[in-house]
Amino acid sequence: MTIFLSRHGRTEWSVQGRYAGVSDIPLDEVGRGQARLLADWARGAGLTGVVSSPLLRARDTAADAARAAELTLRTDPRLRELDFGDAEGLRRAEVDPEAMRRFQADPVADFLPGGEDPVDAAARVTGCLRELDPAGRILVVAHNTILRLALCGLLGIPLADYRRRLPLIEHGSVTELALGPAGPALRRFNSPIR
């Protein structure tokens, strides 16, 4: 199976540096352009399926790609972004400084107050990815943190290192992952669509 992981297009909160998590934020104009570029890529990618997070920003990005590939978009709640709890809607500087210090030191042992445990989030997203069509070429549109947790979970990278080893998934980029009997193989990471 080949999985193409893509982060949704840009939102206003992305520009402002706000934790969006489970907040349902729409794409901004740049994000809509990124969705169109992903759709252009999807048209010739030989996809057999498109699945996305149910959150608006991911769903709208994936819908363009599914139409371009002449496929039906499927959503799966396990692909939603990590819930950042008390930090939802805040900029980093607005989060309690001690909570932020602990989170930056170890985002798994000390996840943001009121937020979702990253271990649970990694389990839900990797479970979803492993259930996809084993013979397919699937585009998965989701979110920055949940995609990094999925990559760590599948590639054997310690979850506590997700922010250091995979600092950012770019909006509208494509990461290609092969899942087979020999284990996962990362073919490309954070490739821009032009």
From TrEMBL:
GO terms for cellular component: cytoplasm. One of its GO terms (molecular function) is phosphatase activity. SMART domains: PGAM (SM00855). SUPFAM superfamilies: Phosphoglycerate mutase-like. This is Probable phosphoglycerate mutase. It comes from Streptosporangium canum.
